[in-house]
Amino acid sequence: MSTLPQATPPGPAAPGAAARATPHAVAAADRGATRIADRVVAKIAAQAAREALPGSTGAPPQATVTVHHDIARVRVSLELHYPSDLAAQCAAVRSRVTRRVEEYAQMSVPEVDIDIEHLHSAHTRTAAGRDRRLR
Fold it and tell me: What is the DSSP string of 45-107?
């Protein structure tokens, strides 16, 4: 007589065996999904825009995002100084936002729209300061 356990012959599985399937039986892609909220992606984009404009004294950039599957379309609202190279600043923001969203959220970013809400010049800042002092 042998004391080794005998292998069970193949046959119908016991009831509930399917519910006890090991994690190895289910492919990783079929186990679930991680969803990142649009507002989280918008915060990543706004922070990236802030990083692209060091020393900016205007209002902080605001971002809105529309996510469809793994594609994020981003719109950033900025206040920039004038005179300056607006095209270069917008290109820097687009580049930084695209890199950060792809890196942190693992989403592709086919477009980043830039809305320049206000331009601040040295002349308007000093004129506004004079007006406030006169009142």
Answer: HHHHHHHHSTT--SSPPEEEEEEETTEEEEEEEEEEEESS-HHHHHHHHHHHHHHHHHHHH--
Tokens 């469809």 — which residue? Answer: 68
Tens-place pLDDT, residues 72-121: 999 999 999 988 899 999 999 999 999 999 999 999 999 999 999 999 88
Residues 6+ apart with CB under 8 A from 43: 63
Residues making up the chain, counted from first to last? 135
pTM for the model: 0.69
CB contact at 8 A, 111 and 51: no
Q: What are 17's two structure tokens?
A: 């065996």
* Rounded-to-integer distance, Cα 20 and Cα 18, Å: 5
CB contact at 8 A, 59 and 51 = no
Residue where the block lists tokens 């190279």: 85
d(CA 90, CA 64): 16
